[in-house]
Design goal:
The complex is a heterodimer of chains A (399) and B (370). Among the domains of chain A are: 35 residues, no CATH class; 64 residues, MutS, DNA mismatch repair protein, domain I, CATH 3.40.1170; 57 residues, Orthogonal Bundle (DNA polymerase, domain 1); 103 residues, 2-Layer Sandwich (Dna Ligase, domain 1). Chain A is built from 15 helices and 16 strands. The mean pLDDT of chain A is 88. Chain A is of the alpha+beta class and 399 residues long. Chain B has 370 residues and is α+β, with helices and mostly antiparallel strands. Chain B folds into three domains: 113 residues, DNA Polymerase III, Chain A, domain 2, CATH 3.10.150.10; 126 residues, DNA Polymerase III, Chain A, domain 2, CATH 3.10.150.10; 114 residues, DNA Polymerase III, subunit A, domain 2 (DNA Polymerase III, Chain A, domain 2, Roll), CATH 3.10.150.10. Chain B contains six helices and 25 strands. In chain B, α1 runs antiparallel to α2 and α5 runs antiparallel to α6. Chain B is elongated, with a radius of gyration of 25 Å. The mean pLDDT of chain B is 92. Classes of the chains: A alpha+beta (399), B alpha+beta (370). The interface between A and B is large, with 40 and 37 residues.
């Protein structure tokens, strides 16, 4: 008789991780566990807040807890942004016209979205993510991919140590405790599968898709579950008899490429659960800039420099708030006849400091100002990088 | 003014002076080079009011005289003329006519009396300095010059008299706060009373170009506001940076007790390889040092990881320290001998690097967070 490989069991209540074939927790007895043979080897996570906007409103107004809540603008043209899980039982879902949702669930409490508040909550959640790993790709306020591989986490000393599965359990627990909302987690070995996993067991879910079952798991899903497959592609696939990912797995890659071009290659990969896309750290900030238009055109170097100094301060402030730093300084000048000049200067290291940005811009201005009249001046920084590497320690400032 | 000059001589001489001229100038005359033709020689002069270079070369002068024309235009023309060309310059009526073979250019001139003269003022200290020594002082320190304008007093090389082990030296120090380079040569006779001066970066760079072609001594004259370097055929005069160089000796650690010796070439090649992986901007590499072994590593979320082991001579507790790889390489490039010595305290304090066979140069490097 052969001994079967043991599964790995993670308790979502006490975060105990053990090898066992029994799904209840061997440490605390809880039945809220995740069991999978590859649980200790997967490291790409997708985390999705459950009915985010609605959950935040319910958190702040406990009397709404047991009521159907819909976030969105009431009125003829309003659309449902989020429906809480109670409301969803009656039919309403995201993106549905409000009047239709109200026909299905007339007792729902409708609350207009408060984006400022949701952004604040999202920031708090992000800080909890940051304790787990520095490599986070936010998709929206309520959704993000995390790379919990040793390589990714090795970059920041404060990143949590331990098996990714456990670290994620801790993330979910902290968000419930510290933020007061629940999340659903998908853990797998790539982004495509992690995203599918997080959707499997909502709300407050924790699902895993491993190497072993990925093909069989994908086989039964509709092709529409694939990122980038919308109504049109689904119809075109349907035309040659492909409706499920399982059917797609049988189509040779060459054929998909000849029909769909480059996207065909991605389709073939996704069908087999391959996804090489990396979790890209949130650098959608590519540059930070500020500009000023003069009331009267000027050709004076002193005017140009005076205009630019406060702009540098503003940029430094924005870099600081976002935890970013810039590696290149850019100067933009618009001449009296609307010609735009841009000049750039690379810095020896990333910076968040206004004085460093200013001194570089000053040099660019002095080189450019040759008597021509300008109507606008702008400063920017690009080559954005992490604040941790900005403005390295200085011999004369630390001693 | 009328003269004939070899294209090669003219180009070389123009090359020495034209880079002094800024690309854009609010004062038109500063865009120009002054051509002063005398007895069998022509002197070219360019200035930006802080730095002035006069370069002389031989020419067949038939009518002496002086004019000024756009330096960059003239340089561009001469550069594009064929090798071996004979250039004929003829100035009259506010124009310079340049002919070479079948090419002919007419250039606008500006009067020479508007051309600023920087060379005035007394330079009380004069001493000879070997070209080899001057080159050593510049090469081993100039990479550390700061470009940060807020600390303008770091935008140059601090040249001063220094004493070590009861010997006096002429020492050059440059720093940008992240690294510091200090190099010294025996104090030349006549330099005993010089004040500490800061030679600006631009002067240093232009000076370095002039040394390449000179094997002889350079005559150095200075006051507390100006310095002049006189070569056989060229004279560079520069204003000095009016500021106080910080007390750099204070930041050179003397008690660093963790000493590593490493073969310099092996080390720098390893740093260079490992840094291929490090973040483009931070360029961080991590050094983990244990008995007899140094492990270099770098990682980046986009690219992956790299490690390399290097045999070193080190005894002591394990230490981990991070550096900017570009700064490490800047320093190892200056080390000519085989072996380098690192003296460290811990992962956040400055590290001292030296060449084992040459105690006239030392480098201080600030670690970075890794």
């Amino acid at each position: 008789m052969t001994v079967e490989l043991e599964n790995v069991v993670l308790c979502l209540d006490c975060l105990d991780l053990s090898r066992s074939n029994i799904s209840s927790c061997s440490a605390c007895g809880s039945g809220r566990t995740v069991m999978h043979s590859e649980l200790d080897r997967l490291h790409i996570a997708h985390i999705d807040c459950d009915a985010f906007y609605a959950s935040v409103e319910k958190r702040d107004e406990p009397s709404l807890r047991d009521q159907p809540v819909i976030i969105g603008h009431a009125g003829a043209r309003g659309v449902v942004t989020t429906a809480c899980y109670i409301a969803r039982q009656f039919g309403p879902s995201s993106a549905m016209p409000m009047f239709k949702a109200m026909q299905m669930c007339p007792q729902a409490v409708v609350i207009p979205p408060n984006m400022v508040k949701y952004r604040e909550v999202s920031k708090k959640i992000r800080l909890i993510f940051l304790d787990a790993t520095p490599v986070i790709q936010s998709i929206s306020l309520d959704e993000a991919y995390l790379d919990l591989s040793d390589n990714a986490r090795g970059n920041l000393t404060h990143a949590a140590e331990g098996t990714p599965a456990v670290v994620l359990g801790e993330v979910a627990r902290r968000i419930e405790k510290e933020v007061g909302i629940t999340v659903s987690i998908g853990l797998s070995h790539n982004k495509f599968l992690a995203k599918l996993a997080s959707d499997l067991n909502k709300p407050r879910g924790y699902s895993v898709i491993g190497e072993a079952e990925k093909l069989s798991f994908l086989a039964s899903l509709s092709v529409k579950k694939i990122n980038g497959v919308g109504e049109i592609t689904a119809r075109r696939l349907g035309e040659f008899g492909v409706e499920t990912i399982g059917q797609l797995q049988l189509v040779p890659e060459v054929e998909l490429i000849s029909r769909f071009g480059r996207f065909g290659r991605r389709l073939a990969g996704f069908a087999k659960g391959h996804d090489l896309r990396a979790v890209e750290e949130n650098c959608h900030v590519k540059s930070v800039s500020a500009e000023k238009t003069f009331l009267q055109n000027t050709n004076s170097i002193a005017d140009l420099i005076a205009a630019v100094e406060p702009l540098c301060g503003r940029i430094a402030q924005r870099l600081g708030h976002a935890g970013n730093a810039g590696g290149t300084v850019n100067l933009k000048l618009k001449t009296a006849n609307f010609k735009i000049l841009t000049r750039t200067r690379q810095l020896p290291h990333l910076t968040q400091r206004a004085d460093i940005i200013f001194s570089q811009v000053k040099k660019l201005i002095t080189r450019e100002a040759d008597g021509r009249f300008f109507r606008l001046i702008g400063v920017g920084v690009s080559d954005i990088g992490p604040a941790a590497h900005a403005d390295p320690p200085d011999l004369f400032r630390t001693i | 003014m009328k003269l004939i000059i070899e294209r090669t001589d003219f180009l070389k001489s123009l090359g020495h002076v034209q880079s002094v001229v800024e690309r854009r100038n609010t004062i038109p005359i500063l865009s120009n080079v002054k051509i002063d033709a005398g007895d069998g020689a022509v002197k070219l002069n360019a200035t930006d009011m802080d730095l002035d270079i006069v370069d002389s070369t031989t020419a067949k002068v038939s009518t002496p005289g002086a004019i000024t024309v756009s330096a960059h235009t003239l340089y561009d023309i001469v550069r594009k003329l064929p090798d071996g060309a004979q250039i004929d310059l003829d100035a009259a009526g506010g124009e310079l006519i340049l002919t070479a073979g079948r090419s002919r250019f007419t250039l606008q001139c500006l009067p020479t009396d508007e051309f600023p003269v920087l060379s005035g003022g007394e330079l009380p200290h004069t001493f000879p300095l070997g070209a080899v020594e001057l080159r050593k002082l510049i090469d081993r320190s100039k990479f550390a010059i700061s470009t940060e304008e807020t600390r303008y007093y770091l935008n140059g090389i601090y040249l001063h008299k220094a004493e070590r082990n009861s010997t006096v030296f002429l020492r050059a120090v440059a720093t940008d706060g992240h690294r510091l380079a200090s190099v010294e040569v025996p104090l030349p006779p006549g330099a005993g009373k010089i004040p500490g001066i800061i030679v600006p970066r631009k002067a240093v760079i232009e000076l370095r170009k002039l040394i390449d072609e000179s094997a002889d001594d350079v005559q150095v004259s200075l006051s507390d506001s100006k310095i002049r370097f006189a070569f056989d055929n060229a004279i560079l005069t520069s204003k000095l940076i009016d500021g106080t160089f910080p007390d750099y000796e204070r930041v050179i650690p003397s008690g660093n007790d963790k000493t590593m010796q490493v073969e310099c070439k092996t080390f720098s090649e390893a740093v260079d390889r490992v840094s291929a992986i490090s973040n483009e901007k931070s360029k961080a590499v991590k050094l983990v040092l244990m008995n007899g072994l140094l492990v270099l590593s770098a990682s980046s979320p986009e690219h992956g990881t790299a490690t390399e082991e290097v045999e070193v001579s080190y005894q002591g507790e394990k230490i981990e320290i991070g550096f900017n790889s570009a700064y490490l390489l800047d320093i190892t490039r200056q080390i000519e001998g085989e072996m380098a010595r690192f003296s460290m305290a811990d992962s956040s304090s400055p590290t001292v690097m030296r060449e084992i066979d040459d105690d006239n140069a030392l480098y201080v490097l600030m670690p970075m967070r890794v």
